[in-house]
Design a protein that fits this description.
363 residues; alpha/beta; five-stranded mixed β-sheet; three-stranded mixed β-sheet; 7 helices; rod-shaped
């Protein structure tokens, strides 16, 4: 710089001054908010001006360049021009407007009818849980004419259901588990009736009970003779043609409800047995006459205390006792030393048991 030159430095043109360039950068932000394309064009012009016109240092020009770019992005984002959904929404609105103009009478969209699973035969508590999951409000009542309150829902079974899709509610009609459903809601429970089983073999009786709809778990067994043990259901089933029904409870044509216990009193005999008929009363007759304490051997035609003849089946044994034929192991006997055989042919002898009473034991 010449110290002797007193003339002022020449002034720069106004369009090269810093305020003008800063205003150009602000214009980038303003126009980008209105139009992304216009803002981009102005940003390019501002970048060129920053690098050509002012006498800024390089880092100032670089900062101004990045500033213009960020101003473009920020303004465009704030105005929603970088959101793709905005364009889609605009197109959708335009399409809807075109469709609305083309259709004079818009068709209503049919309402979707909710579907409900059929819970007939299912536990009531599970049916109500499924109905709630489907958006229905469940209700419940006794399906029979008795109008019983439902407390423990898991102990009831659905017979029928009636749904109201408008109100989104469903009414379940149920009975206690194990009960048959009425033929119509609010009708009487059609309990099965007891068939006539007297004289039938055990196998036949089981088939008749099943055919009548009676639960076999409700059946209990007992014997009719004093000296014969009560068979289990498994034992009776193994030899079901030898066991016969002598007495039954309830009687024929009686209703068998869920609380009824069916009693079958059984007698057992084969073609080899001396007695092959039911006694007149339960627990009054010995199947093996020699087991009767009042039994006396009178030789070839011995009789029991109740007058039943042994038919010569008994015979004297070498030890002074008698052979009474087929006996049941563990049953009571009256004549110590008397002999017999089981159905399987095992020799048995009458002698004191662990309880001190005479019983048939293996010899």
């Amino acid at each position: 710089m010449d110290p002797y030159n007193t003339n002022p430095p020449p002034s720069r043109p106004w369009w090269k001054t810093t305020p003008v360039l800063l205003g150009l950068l602000a214009l980038v932000a303003l126009l980008s908010a209105v139009s992304l394309g216009l803002g981009f064009f102005v940003m390019i012009a501002a970048m060129v001006a920053v690098w050509v016109l002012p006498s800024w240092r390089w880092y100032a020009r670089l900062g101004a360049t990045f500033g213009a770019f960020f101003l473009l992005l920020i303004s465009a984002s704030m105005s929603g021009q970088l959101d793709d959904s905005g364009a889609d929404k605009s197109e959708a609105k335009a399409k809807n407007a075109d469709d609305a103009g083309a259709e004079t009478t818009p068709s209503p969209t049919p309402a979707k009818i909710p579907e409900l699973t059929d819970y007939t035969g299912k536990a009531l508590d599970k049916a109500e849980k499924g109905a709630r999951a489907a958006g229905f409000t469940p209700g419940r009542h006794d399906a029979s004419a008795e109008g019983r309150p439902i407390v423990v829902r898991s102990a009831w079974t659905v017979c029928s259901q009636k749904a109201d899709t408008t109100a989104k509610s469903v009414a379940f009609a149920a009975v206690r588990t194990g009960e048959p459903c009425p033929t119509k809601d609010g009708g009487p429970i059609p309990w099965p009736t007891m068939p006539d089983l007297v004289g039938d073999t055990y196998n036949t009786a089981v088939k008749e009970l099943d055919r009548a709809g009676i639960d076999l778990d409700s059946v209990t067994l007992d014997d009719v003779y004093i000296d014969i043990d009560t068979p289990t259901a498994e034992e009776a089933a193994e030899e079901g043609d030898e066991w016969r029904v002598c007495f039954q409870r309830p009687d024929e044509d009686s209703e068998v409800t869920s609380t009824t216990t069916v009693h079958l009193d059984l007698g057992r005999w084969t073609d080899a047995d001396l007695v092959q008929e039911c006694p007149s009363k339960k627990d009054t007759t010995y199947k093996i006459p020699a087991n009767d304490p009042d039994y006396h051997d009178s030789g070839d035609n011995s009789t029991t205390g109740n007058g039943a003849s042994t038919g010569g089946d008994s015979s004297s044994s070498s030890d002074g006792g008698s052979n009474v034929g087929t006996v049941h192991p563990g049953s009571f006997c009256s004549q110590p030393g008397a002999t017999g055989v089981t159905k399987a042919g095992t020799p048995m002898v009458c002698g004191p048991g662990s309880d001190g009473r005479n019983r048939w034991r293996s010899s």
